[in-house]
Structure formats: C-alpha cells, structure tokens
Amino acid sequence: MNSFNYKNGELYIEGLNIHSIAKEVRTPFYCYSFNHLKDQYNKLDQSITLGNYQICYAVKSNSNQSIIKTFSKLGSGADVVSIGELKRALEVGISPNKIVFSGVGKSLEEMQFAINNNILMFNIESISELRRLSDESIKLNTKSPVSLRINPDISAGGNEKISTGKAEDKFGIDWRGASESYDLAGSLPGIKIVGIDAHIGSQINDLEPFEKSFDRLSKITKSLRKKGHEINILDVGGGLGVKYHPDDRPLDIEGYGKLLSEKLGDLDCKIIIEPGRFLTANSAILVTKTLYIKNTDSNNFIIVDAAMNDFIRPTLYNAYHQVVSVKEGKKDTVLKYDIVGPVCESGDFFRKNIKMGSIEEGDLLAIKSVGAYGSVLSSNYNTRPSINEILVNNDQFEIIRDRVEVEEIIKRDKIPNWI
Fold this sequence. Notes:
The protein is α/β, with parallel strands linked by helices. The protein has helices at 18-22, 34-47, 65-73, 83-91, 108-116, 127-139, 178-187, 207-226, 253-264, 277-280, 313-317, 406-411, and strands spanning 4-7, 10-13, 16-17, 29-33, 53-58, 77-80, 99-101, 121-124, 144-151, 173-174, 191-197, 233-235, 270-273, 284-295, 300-304, 323-325, 335-340, 349-356, 364-368, 388-393, 396-401. It folds into 2 domains: 4-32 and 281-411, Lyase, Ornithine Decarboxylase, Chain A, domain 1; 103-273, Alanine racemase (TIM Barrel, Alpha-Beta Barrel). It is globular.
C-alpha cells in the first residue's frame, strides 16, 4: 500500500490530511504509517518459504516502543545491540527466546543482563569477547548460547559507512579463520555453540551479494559440522534495500525469499533474518514548516524549522531523501533551492539544488523515507527540543513520543556548588 498520496491538492498519510495533523501537533514532527509497517512485515514474511525461520526486527533502525510492538504482535523477534534496546524489546513483550544480541562492544553489564534473561543467542564479534562471555557465564553457573559472526569479505551496501562485511570492517571474525575460532569456542566451559552469524551491509538492492554470502555460510556450516560442531541456527543478518530515489530499484523481496530456500533450505537450520530499514524506512515523513525564503545572487534557500539534529542522514551519509510540498506543487513558478535548517552548520541541509514550485513562508514540507535511522539518530544540538513522533492508523493518530522541551533539557544539567 502507498500510504502517502495527494487528494484534492493536499498530502495525506493513510486517511488523514497532513495539514489537519499540523494544526494539533507542533512542527517539526515525525509521522508514521501503521499500515505501511504491517504491510512491509507481511511482504517479507510471505516471501519466505522456509519451514523454520524467525524474523528479528533490527531495533537500531527505529527503537520507538510502538514500532517494536507493532512488529512483535506480527510475530517478530528482535536483534539488539545494547542493553537499552534489549530492555525495550522485553518491555513490549518480545520473548527472550526470540532475541539475538549483536554488536562489537558488549559490556559486562550487558552480558550479565542478557544471560539472566535467557536470550536466544549472542552474536560474537571477536575472540576477546568470546572469552569474556565464557568467564561471565561461568560466574553465573551457565553456558551461553553463541553464534560467531563471520566476516565473509563481501562488499555490499550503498555507503562505505554502512558496509559491514568487508575484511577491513570492524565487524566479525575473518571467515578464513572460522574453523579455528569455533574450535576455541567449543573448548570454553561457559560457551554453547548454536549457530553462525553474518551481516554484509545495509541498503543492498542486488541479490548477488546475498547469494555470495549464503554460499559461503553454507560451506562453512557443512565444514564445521564435519568437525563435530553443532550448528542449528544461521543468522543471515539484514541489509534488505528499499527505494529512496524515484529511480531506485528496490530489492526483489520475492527473489530474496527464494534465494534463502535455494541456498540454505537443505541445511536443517533455523534461519534468522534481521530487517530494519526494509520494514521502517518508507513508513514515515518528517513534516516541517517553511520559516523563510532567502534569495541571493548565487543561491536560493528554503529555511525550515527542522534541522540536522532532528534528521542527520543527508549530511552524515550524503543520503538522498525526496522533499515535497504538503500542498500539491504548482508548476507556474519553478526555482532551484537548497532546503536548510536553523542549526549553525553548513551541513544543516536536507536537499540541495532541488526544483520546487511556488513555496511561501508558512508552507509545510514533507521529507520522505525517514522511518529508519531518523529519530534514533537525533540529538539536542544547539539545545533544540526533541520533536514529537506520531503514528497514523487509517483516520486516527496518536503521539508515540512526546516532545522534550528546552526547559527539561536544561534541567538535566547539574552545577557543582563550588562554581
């Protein structure tokens, strides 16, 4: 379903007019489509024909409790990378046996909390981490279930900052040393080997890197089993690409499901898939108000009330996001603009050299495809408030994150009595 459409010259999300929402919710704000979230999950779920699999939502992409619970009610588990994300997943009712703990820098506190909550498994990123987890497990009189994250040395993903499967990346254990690493894991008294993990990157729109990764995982699994290691789970990571630019070709999700079956279906393993961006990216817009129109000899600017602290992907990743007027654009006057925010940084922009119809001060704009790595990367830089998030279901909406005002932010600071 396309949750964002123009009707009678006005932009709607599902059954609600954006202008009507903005009369009740102060701009800027994030606005999510509940039905888009469900549709994306079901699209992926229905593409997979394996008999034994589990979708584990990558909480890092959007950690709002309402988003996590939406997927939980559809059957999702969780892929977490911090104690905070683990607590979020547990809070909304995700069963511990559907939770995997990833990440290169798990602290002792995080290990202990995850052990005590009996999660499905730890995805281990280094030999040092493996040894530490064994030590902590012994102290707690248990064995922790682990998969080792194998770095398959496969280049994939739309940006070098989100590539995770090349040899030079910080993630995982070199696939060439997998056998020795598993032998060590099998010798540690606090470790129980249950599977293998791999994740090659993010925003992948081509099936070929997945095919290479699955082939490598299959060979490693068979090799490790010959040595007597028990491999019951294959965590294939996420990375499923979506459409940001009108010319983008998103990943063939049905082809992805078939590839899983063709390459891994004969291994008699539980397959874990960890989508994040695929489920959330195109579920949301960031609604912002035009403050000023500034025309100079060299450039034209639309200055809006959202800023890089609210949404940093354009400056952090040079990411493309469509920006549209909430009122359907008039074509009589078309100029090129830079759309920028109020933060005192030249990097505070959302689009550059974008053609827009007649825009006036006070008009609302919508920045599209902001549901993944949007609000979760926001900050209070320049002592700017944290903005509202709302969730729309057909013709109703609810605020799912309250705005945090400046006064509350300032109150967090503590001044020593000797100042």
